[in-house]
């Protein structure tokens, strides 16, 4: 039986960058053991929110909590043992192999002087097997396709063995077949391991198809949060994406399918 994942929660969260506030007094609870997709137009605050949940962006007000504990007070290594992050466009060192990069996911579980263990090896082997990379273990990352490279980064996160995995646009620059491959892999991880998955995604229809829960953002605030069928309405699409669209059931999955109306795009208010 899979142990319940911890709860990641933002309370009255305000965050941003020097001279620019991006998130405004935001409340959000990530449902444990589910797949949550965060969607919204460019500059809506999606990546800033993910960064705050991952403790990369310190709030200017409010808190991010893990099982009720302010993450600012959790030791970095202990936090990394529970919460993993795959950022946008991660960069691998030149010449590093698949197995070497995946092995770096074990760093949060090893002390400075702790030797590599059989458990470390097993976690790395399992992560590569789950992502279909076993036969590529000795290949340099630079020799792989875009889809293969993304699977390596996900494998590194799996080797970390987090209970919560945050991913910032993991399908960017991938063709459609590789996008589906990555999303299928994440859903499989959620279903088999009970890992909480949180993904920032651009593509509305893929988000609706794969998510248990959708978080829709606009101008640094959450405008809708819930099941895709409840959240993805014509009004929400118009508000969040400045787009007139029809929303109908996908003929294959029954999940919401957003079909833009020709000429239906209109100017979005300046988020600044």
TrEMBL record:
Top-rank taxon, per record: Bacteria
Recorded topology in the membrane: Peripheral membrane protein
PROSITE patterns found in the cross-reference section: ABC_TRANSPORTER_1 (PS00211), ABC_TRANSPORTER_2 (PS50893)
UniProt domain ABC transporter: residue ranges: 8-244
Compartments (UniProt record): Cell membrane
UniProt keyword terms in alphabetical order: ATP-binding, Cell membrane, Ion transport, Iron, Iron transport, Membrane, Nucleotide-binding, Transport
InterPro entries cross-referenced by the UniProt entry: AAA+_ATPase, ABC_transporter-like_ATP-bd, ABC_transporter-like_CS, P-loop_NTPase, Siderophore_ABC-ATPase
Keyword Nucleus included in the entry's annotation: no
Stored SUPFAM superfamilies: P-loop containing nucleoside triphosphate hydrolases
Gene3D superfamilies: P-loop containing nucleotide triphosphate hydrolases
Pfam families: ABC_tran
Keyword Transport: yes
SMART domains: AAA
Protein name: ABC transporter ATP-binding protein
